[in-house]
Structures are given as C-alpha cells and as structure tokens.
Design a protein that fits this description.
Largest interface: A-B, 28 and 35 residues
Order of helices and strands of chain B: HEHEHEHEHEEEEHHEHHHEHEEHHEHHH
Low-confidence stretches of chain B: 9-33
Largest sheet of chain A: none
Largest sheet of chain B: 7 strands, mixed
Radius of gyration of chain A: 24 Å
Strand content of chain B: 5-15%
Mean pLDDT of chain A: 87
Shape of chain A: globular
Helix content of chain A: over 70%
Order of helices and strands of chain A: HHHHHHHHHHHHH
Oligomer: heterodimer
Low-confidence stretches of chain A: none
Distance between the termini of chain B: 73 Å
Number of helices of chain A: 13
Number of helices of chain B: 16
Helix content of chain B: 40-55%
Structural class of chain A: mainly alpha
Number of strands of chain B: 13
Mean pLDDT of chain B: 90
Radius of gyration of chain B: 26 Å
Amino acid sequence: MEFKKFGLYNILSFTLLSALTIFFIFPFYWIATGAFKLQDVAIALPPQWFPTSPTLDNFRQLLVPLTARWFFNSVFVSLATTVLVCATASLAGYALAKKHFPGVKLLFAIFIGAMALPKQVILIPLLRLITEMQLMDTYRALILPAVGWPFGIFLMKQFSHSVPDSLLESADIDGCGEIKKFVNIVLPIVKPGIGALAIFTFISSWNDYFSQLVFTNSEAMKTLPLGLASMAQQAEFSLNYGLLMAGALVASLPMIIVFLMFQSFFAQGITVGAVKG
Amino acid sequence: MKLNKFKKLVALAMSASLLSGITAQFAPAIAHAEDQVTIKFWNFPNFTSDSEFKTPEEYDKALIAAFEAKYPNIKVEYQKLDFTDGPAKVETALQSQTNPDVIYDAPGRVIDWASKGYLAPFSDVDTATLNESAVKASSFDGQLYLYPQGIAPFLMAVNTEVTDKLGVTDLLPLNSEDRNWTVDEFQKFLEAVQEKDSEMIPTVLYSKSAAGDQGPRAFVSNLFGSWITNDEVTEYTINNEAGVKAMEWIQEQAPKGIIGQGAALEAKDALEYFKSGKAALTILASPGLLAQWKDAEGLTARFLPFPNVDKAPKYEYLVAGPAVFDNGDEAKVKAAQQFVDFMINDEEWGIRTLKATGNFSAKKDETGLYDDEELAFAEKLSAHFGAYYNTIPGYARMRPLWFPLLQGVLSGDTKDVKEALDAFVKEATEIYEEEAALLKQ
C-alpha cells in the first residue's frame, strides 16, 4: 500500500515536473529552431515546429564586423561590471557587517532604501549626470552606474555575517593587516556569495537593455541586444524573425556559460541562511 | 635640499607645459565659439527609398555632409533611432534635458511636445503654400511646430500575382478610376479567395499592439462611414450607429476566417503574410511601404481604398517632417531651423529627401514627382483625408484602449459591441478631458 502510494506520488511528480519543464523550455526551443528558419518559414501558418529545411543564412548575416564589436561590448561591459560590483559589494558588505562605526545602521538603511527605487526613477538624473560629465557613449557610462549596486551590498553583508568574529579577532591578535585579513580570511568564506552575486550581476548587466539604449549613441558602442534589435528591424513595419532569433540564441550563450561556471556557488548563494546551524 | 628644489622646478615646468597645452587646445575653440554651432539631429529610419544608399543612416549622413559643406559654421551630430525603442529614448532624453535639436517625426508625438513647450515654432513658413490638412495636423495653438515635408494616405493593397493565380482579380475595383468598393463587394472578394485556396489568408485584421493601429481604425471607421472623432477633433464618435454596425460586421466575419486570426497578430505579422504571398490583401499600405515591397518576389502590390458602404472612403494619413527643439540657445534654434530649411527647400536635397521617404510633397505646387501608376493613384487621395485625430490630447493613452476593444470583438469574447464601444469612448473621453484640462493650466 505504502509502496503503491509512493509510486503514484512519484509518477504524478514526474508528470507535473516534465510538463512544467516542457512549458518553460519551449520558448528557448522556439528560439533555437527559429534561428535556422528563413523569414517565410518563421511566419508560416500553421507554425513549423521543427525546420524542415534548416538554413544557416541568419547566422551568416550575423557574421559582420559590427556584430563582433557588439558582442565584445556586451562581454566587456558585463564582465567589467561584474568584477567591479563583486569587488565593491564584498568590501562594503564586510564593512557594514563587521565594522562598528558611527552611522553604520543609517548607512545600511540608505542602501536598503535604494533597493526599493526602480531603475527608471534614477535613470533620468543619471543620464543628466553622464551627459554633464561627458561620459555619454563610452564604456564608463555603461559600467559605472551599475557599480555600488545596493542589492549586491545587501547580499554581501548577509554573507559577511557568517564570518566568525573570533576568527577575525585571532587575525588581529596575530597582527594581520586589514587587507590581508579581508583577502585571506573573509573572501574564502564569502566565496559562494560572490559567485551568486557574479551571476546576478552578469545577467543583469547583459540584459540591461534600456540603460544601454539611452547611454549609447553610436553603432560602435551598441551592445549585442541593442545592435541585434536594430539589425533585425530595418523599417517601421519590418522584422526579420529568423535573424532576431539567431541573434537571441547567440546572445544567450555567454549567460549559459556563466551560469554553468558559477552554478555551484549560485546554489550555495541563494540558500544562505536557509538552514540555521 | 637641492633635490627638493629640483623636484619643485620639475613640477613647475610640468605644470606650465600642461597649462600651455590646455590653453593651446582651448584657444581656437574660444576664438570660433561665436561662429561655430553644433546641433544634434536624431532620426528614425525615414529615408529608406534612395537607391544610392544602402541604409537610411547612410542617407542621413550624406544629407548632413551636404548641409555642412554649404554651411561650414554648423556642425550636425547624428543619432540613429529605431522605431521600436526610439520614442522611449527621446522621452528619456527630454526628461533629462539631453534631447536633440532636430528630429524628423510625425505630428502625433511632435504636437504633444509642442503642447508641453519643448519646441520652437516655424514662424516664418508660408503655410498657405502647404497642404491644409498637413498644416492643421502640424500646428498647435495656431503655430506650426512640425514643418510638413511629406504626406501620404494610409490605404489597403492587394497582391495581384496572388489574385491572378486564384482567378479573383476581376472581383476587385481596380479598373474604375477611384477604385472604390462597397462592403458587400469586399466581402465577396474575401470569400472568393478563401473558396479558391483555403490555405490563403484573404486578409488580416490585426489587433495585437499599437504599432500600425491606424490601419484597423481606418478600416473599421470606413466600413459604414463613422470616424474615430468628429471633424473638429474634440469628441470621440466611433460608438455611433455606423461604428457599431462596423464592429458587428467584424464580429460576424471573424469566425469565418476571411479576416484572419488578427486577435493574436500585429501589423508586422500581417505585412509579412502579405509580402510573402500568404495573404492576398493588407489593410495597411502606404507609398512608403510600396517602396519597401518593390523587390519582393511574387508580389505585385496595387493600392485599394477601404471598403465603404457609400463608396466614399476617408483616409487616415501620414504627415512627416522635421521639428526643432527649443533648448534655450537661440543660436542652436537658428542653426537647427537652417538645417530644416535645407532638408526641405534646398534645390537638390529638398526633393531628394522627400523622395527618400516615398511620401508625396506637402507643398501644394509640388506634384507628380513619381512616375508610377500606383503612386499617382495614391497622390490623388489627399483630397479625401479624414480628420487627423493623432494630435487629440491624450492620444497616446487612447491607443492602448483600442486594441483590446478590437481583440475582444475578433476573438468572440465581446458579445455586445455597442456596450464595448461605449466603454471605449467613455474612457477615451475621460483621458481627453483630463489632458485637455492640463493643457489649459
């Protein structure tokens, strides 16, 4: 009886999970197959679920120097943002969690408050600032506004709490300097948090379409999502679906790679605090 | 001590050389500051039809180069915009006061900016020489804010290669001079297409998004002779008897499949079906689109008026031209207006720029620019333009109310079309009154 119950539960779970997997994976499947379809096949009715005569034409159209530049821009901006966010957030998070100085609570409250602000609210003053500082259409305009991400600081503060005070005190007694203490003691302990933050930051930066749209002017400074969108739309009512899907497929690859690289950290990162020791 | 002195000397020398460098860099700029003006020109891909240039931005750059050669004291910085996210970019720039000095656009957005005080008017333009409808659409508070260069009606088009193949071309009114047809004749044509080839989509009445929504609105308005607003553009009128009748006609035809599965499709999809020969007719066509279809294989597009019960259709129309932002610098406004004047009135680049858009001239005396039967037909329709309601206060907020209304009718979710139209008009009127009151403040 018990066995039967368990079997039925497993079957139901498996069925439900399979259905959900198919449901969530379908858009990606549609993009992946659409990338190999020419325009007339991409818009065919009834839809062609699998391309009967797949083509590489869409990918050939992507093989232009400008696409390579857009790809480089996206990779460079996302990587630089990730490195800078991880560096600043881990330092700030550690300071907020372990250093006692006047106004530390107020400072943290300000960071928490900043998290509640939607990006659109700060975009306009930010654009003004970037223009005034003559940073428009530069890598700095795409990278610097993302550094000092309140969520990253919050996340790293929570991780830094897990660093035992006794360990830090021992280091102090042994005469360990602040930088050495941070690098040799704190960083190894908060590594899962940095991994999770790296994934969040990379994805957020890669997909930050609107900021990239308003902070860039020239074709050469466009990022991959921006460039592909304009490439696929040559006139007001025309959109090359196959080309767009091929571009989307290429654009999703770095994110998949980053996720695979950091996924073990990511799992640890998102479960921080879930189990109390 | 000696070393310190040496260090100080080196520092002094370096500072002096740095300062002299800065001075040397700034000096010419300061000397020419009074003469040299830099303006920013932002443009959508409007200039698509000039065969010399592969892309619209290449055309834009050539236009700028020609202007700068003629006016060396004005430098034009160029920014390409896309139709999908360009409007959002412009709005953000306006909010942060980093907007351009010149933009080439349509009255819908331009008049909204004018009403908010962002623009400089074209006070010196002789509006008597321009098409009245275009001037009306481009003006706010009696002042011209968009210099109308091009006009064009939105109409329908049929692919005669498809209809010839199906043997239904004789059901089209292509042989009459005005090509007008009734709703019954139109319906008969759609049914004939479906009967001859069940795979062929006769036409697509799309309603998924705001892009190209003028097509469905003009289609609905024309069927039984209603219009979205009154002629004075002060009241929404599409819920009148004719409007209800039109929606009821759509409600009746939708299940038959002769007007496509438009509840889930947008203008782009409908046009792709037409372009690729999967749909026989499109309810969205214009001279600009005709130019884009020129090289499409298996497509011979011919213009058609919207079906109308009295064979007297009215047309929604496009007005396009540049507008100048008032960024608080008189010299820039003057330079921007100079650029606009060049774009429209220069002997060589004026006509060329107009023709690059594929539109007809808004100048009354500039007709017959294109040697093409379809364009000659479309040009004549400027006498039948309906009220241009894209400048009604709250237009942008009305648009998102339109497509759910049509979607409901197309999908069969809406049972009482009168009730649905009344609800649309009530909500649109509330928006209009709210926005009109704001403008009066």
